[in-house]
Amino acid sequence: MANENNSRKAILVTPELCIGCRACQVACKSWNQLPAITTKNNGSYQNPPDLAGTAFNIIRFNEVPSKDNPVRWLFVSRRCMHCDDAGCMNICPTPGAIFRTPEGAVATNSDKCIGCKLCVQACPFDVPRYDEQGKMSKCHLCFDRIANDMQPSCIKTCPTGALKFGDRAELVTAAKSEGYSTLYGEKDLGGLGSVYAFKEEPNLYGMLENPRIPSSVVFWHTYLKPLSYIGLGGVVAAAAIHYLAVGPHKDDKEV
Ligand code: SF4
Ligand code: SF4
Ligand code: SF4
User: Fold this and answer.
1) Where, in this chain's numbering, is [4Fe-4S] cluster 3 bound (predicted)?
2) Would you say residue 125 has pLDDT above 80?
């Protein structure tokens, strides 16, 4: 886990400031050179419908009942949470495939990823997706930019301040002083690197209540993963962990 210290960076998401323009989605694709994907209209303006190997962030469109309008739109950015206690890192059997940067980002090295998909089972937020080469891909907090004192691409592009980047402790303090009573992720899983500031209930925005790493992941992280370091081998250990923690292989849906 990353220590909570002055160097830990974070994204502060303030959904009530989001206008749903999706400039953040486009900026991410542009910086990461991610191609467009074909989607279908499923009755919502949300597009793409979910994260994908080529979509590291999306704006979730929530429609909720309203007294004053036929519908009230609540927009919220969905992305990797850069958990302090990161289930994906805990279960990954390949050293260096998922790694922590000095700024606290959880990033990936596709050269080392073996495509076992264990991280999918271990992530409470259903974030990991796979690219065309079968390698895990997700938001990496623009670790290549922030290491060079640049803002993440999506944050730099956001026109309303719904996305901010900076020192985690300072962002949390500022959000509280601005009257945001609920900071989703302030303490969850050791403290998330994507913190959400709300004045209303987070579940109105579709946020997961009480995120937890599956107990099977904790068990295998503690007892079986070390075998991969003493000679069992990453691939064999991964297969064993997957079978015991998840069960026999089933076809996955990819969005
Ligand atoms: S949200 Fe999921 S993929 Fe991102 S760091 Fe946490 S466990 Fe890993
Ligand atoms: S921080 Fe970078 S990789 Fe993550 S969603 Fe924003 S632009 Fe994409
Ligand atoms: S760029 Fe900012 S305002 Fe536009 S959709 Fe993204 S978070 Fe919302």
Assistant:
1) 80, 83, 88, 123
2) yes
